[in-house]
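Title: Request for sanity check on UDP-MurNAc-pentapeptide synthetase prediction

Description:
We are preparing a figure and want to confirm that the structure record we downloaded matches what your pipeline produces today. Could someone re-run it with the sequence below and paste the raw structure tokens into this thread? We only need the token string, no images.
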Amino acid sequence: MNLTVAEIAEISEGMIVGAESRATVSGFDFDSRVQRSGAGFVALIDGRDGHDYVSAALERGAAVALVSRIPEGVDGPLVVVEDPLRALGRIAKFARSSMADASVVAVAGSAGKTSTKDLIFSGVSRRFKSHANSASFNNEFGLPVTILDAPVGTEVLVLEMGERFLGDLSYLCDIAAPNIGVITHVGLAHSGNLGGRAGIIDVLGELLVALPNDGLAVLNSECSATQTLLERSAAPVLTVGYALDADVRISNASLDEQLRPTFSLHTPWGNLDSVRLQLLGEHQVVNAAMAAATALYLGASTEDVALGLSSALAAHWRMELSHSPAGVAVLNDSYNASPKAMEAALTTFARLPAGRRVAVLGAMHELGDESRAEHARIGELAATLDIDEIVVVESELSEPLAAAAEASGALVARVANPEAAFALISESLKSGDAVLLKASRVVGLERVADLLLGAAG
């Protein structure tokens, strides 16, 4: 969305310094390294102080910088506000209010948000002018940037929403005003911050409470928390899953040798037969079914939805299957990890045809009081699957996983870091073998993928 500097200052209750009030700003960025010419720059304070990068952003062509203080040596163009992050939210809320005819779909949940968001976007974009978050721009700065980047005439805006603390979804919904809310699953991701499963249900319920009475909630009938969530929605609810009484019902799900699911779907708008996804793993079937329900409700045809779902590709580091020059299959699911996602990755990996299967695993962070038990449960599960070796990047959090897998009879090796994991497994890997990489983002297992895929033999 294009706004003038004067409009930005008025909306954000800011003061213009060294800027032409009639100058146009096209969207916002918060990383000076990828600053777009003509867009604004938001000086966020999140580990680093964005005010230190205002000069770099302006040199790259930023039309204005949203700041809380005037950086040394910078005389404009600036809009000085009390809190740049909150100001960005107010600007995005204004932009959303100008899109009165657009349908806004919010996607939240403990796992599967990004895949479901991408599947919804693919399902609606053949019929509607659509826009969605890049990667996982799902928080208090990524979501406003996504809204402000929506092209003029956007008919469907698909927004992934992250939830780490109570109140997160209420804040994001206040900005985005969604018509449709999709909750993929209630698990234990971020349970340490949210006070366990009850807190997770509460924060996800914030999305349902925010929906208008004439909106729609799309819920996973396979999730045990769905009945509780149902009671929090004033909007009508569509349930999606394998159950015979699901409003949108899945049948005939299967995986091929490349782990791609095929399934059929029975819906109030007609059936989808033998849809094959490019996303890997049977857990993606429910995500795709929820996406299909959303797209069909909005008015997309069954044909367009089936084609859209079949064309959706995996996001970076999420169940990405590649092959090294040495002929080793690398299943890179290293972007993040929760118990549900770890379970899905392991069970899917165990079905990948391979000579030997080696799972390189690390800690799942932010599980709070559930951490030890959930790591141990995942270790026990891994030991029961057709996996030849489990390599665990050592930490206090991951040790229960390693110990439980070892106690259950699995071959387990402990290593200090991702580079050590690569050094260990590369000694014995042969053409036709397979490697899974799965842990929370901070563990950095994508480095193992880089080393494997960059190896010459």
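Thanks, this matches our download. The longest helix spans residues 284-298.
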